[in-house]
Amino acid sequence: MAAHRKPRQSPLGGPAVRTAATLALASAATATLFEGSGHADPRLTTAQVKAKVDRLYHEAEVATEKYNGAKERADASRAAFDRLRDEAARRAERLNTARDGLGSMATAQYRSGGLDPAVQLALTSDPDEYLERAALAEKAADRQAVAVTAVRRELGALRQLRSESAGRLTALRGHEEELRRQRTVVLGKLEAARTLLARLTAEERARYDAAVAARDSVRAPGSDSASGAMAGGTATAAGATADPGAPRADRSSGGERGPVTAPNNRAAEAVSFARAQLGKPYVWGATGPSAYDCSGLTQAAWRAAGVALPRTTYTQINAGQRVSRSQLAPGDLVFFYSGISHVGLYIGGGQMIHAPRPGAPVRVAPIDEMPFAGATRVG
Fold it and tell me: Same domain for 97 and 245?
């Protein structure tokens, strides 16, 4: 009887299961379709792309200044480590010389037999000769004591130098790791911006470029009331006359814009240098002469005037005397954003020369185009 029973179908096979599987796949495909349409990135407008790209460029600039600071610290640690290593090498050489001298003295004593002075006196037939030898031996003992002291001193100094070198090396590796981390952040932000721009159609890219050009319109220096500081330290608003030797406040926040002059020759030289860089490209981390980032440009401008500025925006703001916006004069450093992540060189008339961002060369721009954070007068 059992041999003639109809076998039971496995719950994992058969037409019913195939039908259920087909329905499940169809349901999954439908769900995927709806889910995909629900989560797909909407097509961004040109204005939205511009806003995102601007944000990415700003974030890249923040990371660039952190990179610049890490690089400055890494360079300082590397220089200090190299100095300690060189000093350790010189100390090791002096130690070897002192050891050699001590060894020579020990060898001479061994060869002389190292007899007790009383025995030497009993054996000598010439007391005067003995006394002379005793005096020489005493001097030799003094020299030996000096040599031992020198060896001990060099050993101690060498241990100290090696300890300091180890600390500097640890700091250097930490700064280099921060350098790599910030470099990765910068490159990631810039690549994200490039990816967004690459998605634009030709027509959208044209609109984007027109919007950027409208925002970053460059006024030719001297073409209107926004003329800046001229070489020689004098900068006056167009159509106005003033005593070139009498600096006055520049009410750059709006309203009256009185004649302004650079406060000294060094400020005028810094402005003159910055003008000569107009049109050069922005490159993050660059300090010239062929390209700059924002703090690299201001550092180079003041270096040309004989003043050494620190490398980053957040250190440059403390490199001189703070001045209010209403008292700005050509050559002042003007800073932007709450994190002090951008800097330009003020040239008068509410204008500055700055290195804006990737794709935008060194140019003249109004200081009103970014959130003003403060100003510093150096030199």
Answer: no
